[in-house]
Amino acid sequence: MNVKKTIKPMPLWESGLFFGIPAAIFCFSIYIVMPLLGEAGVNPILNYSLTLMGPVLLLFVASFVALKIDGYRLNWKIIKERFRLAPLRKREWLWTIGLSVFMVSGNFLLLPTQKWLLDTVRFNPPDYLPSTLDPRMTLSGIPPEFETTPLVILIVFQLSFLFFNIFGEELWWRGYILPRQELVHGQYTWIIHGLLWTLFHVFWWWNLIFLLPGALAASFVAQKFQNTTIIIIAHLVVNTLGGTILMLLSS
Fold it and tell me: From its phi and psi, is residue 110 left (phi > 0), alpha (psi between -120 and 50) or beta?
C-alpha cells in the first residue's frame, strides 16, 4: 500500500468537524460530567480520570479507527508511515529543542493574558474546577484534591494521563489530520491547523492567547519536517517541564 497516495484531502468544513467534535466532547465532559460526579461524591482521581483522561483516550482510539475507516491495515509499518513517526536526525533534534524552548518560554511570557482575558470577558471559570486547572489559584505542592490519595495512585494517574494526552492529541492532530489538510491548503496548512488547534482549547478559553504562538510554531515544524515525533517530544517537554517550573515559581 502506498500510504501517501491513499491519504484523502480534508476540506476546511471537514477540518471544522474534526476539531469541533472533540472540543464539544471536552466541554461536555468538563462542564457537565465533572460537576455531576463531584456532587455525587466521586473520588477526585476517578472523576478526573473520567472527565479529563476519557476524552484524550477517545482521541487516541479515534486515530486508529480513522485509519481503519480509510482502508489502512493496522500494522506497525503502515501506522508509523501514515502518522509520520520517524526517528529524529541531528537537525530535527535542534528544531525539537528550539520548539520546546519557544513553547515553554512563550507560555510563561504570555501567562498574564489569562488575567487580561478573565477581566475582559468577565465570565469566570466554574468554581468546581480542580486547583491544577483553575487560573485563579496559585498551586504549591500537591493539589488539595489529591492530598488524601496514595502517592502511587497519583503517579499512575499522572503518567497515564500524560501518555494519552500527548499521544492522543499528536496522533489525531499531527498524525492523522495534518497530512490530509496539506492536500487542500498546501504551504498555508500550518496557519489553519495552528488556529484550529488553538480554538480546540476553547474549554480553557482563558488560555487561548498564550497557546496560539506555540500552536502555530508546532504546526509549522510538523509540516516543515513531516515528522510527528518532533511535536510529541516538544509536547512532552511543555507538559512536564513547563508544569514543574510553574509550580516552583509559585511555591
Answer: alpha
Q: 125-152 pLDDT, tens per residue?
A: 877 777 777 777 766 666 677 777 788 8
Q: What is the pTM of this model?
A: 0.91
Q: Tell which residue, 209, 183, 207, 164, has the closest CA to residue 15.
A: 183
Residues spanned by the domain of 27: 3-250
Q: 84 near 63, Cβ under 8 Å?
A: no
CA distances from 39 to 2, 42, 50, 160, 220 (A): 52, 8, 15, 25, 43
Say how many domains are in the chain.
Answer: 1
- Quick: pLDDT tens for 42-99: 888 888 888 989 999 999 999 999 999 999 999 999 999 999 999 999 999 999 999 9
What ranges in the chain are assigned the alpha helix state H?
Answer: 3-6, 12-28, 34-39, 44-48, 54-69, 76-82, 90-109, 112-121, 151-170, 178-185, 189-200, 208-225, 228-237, 243-250
Cβ–Cβ < 8 Å for 234, 218: yes
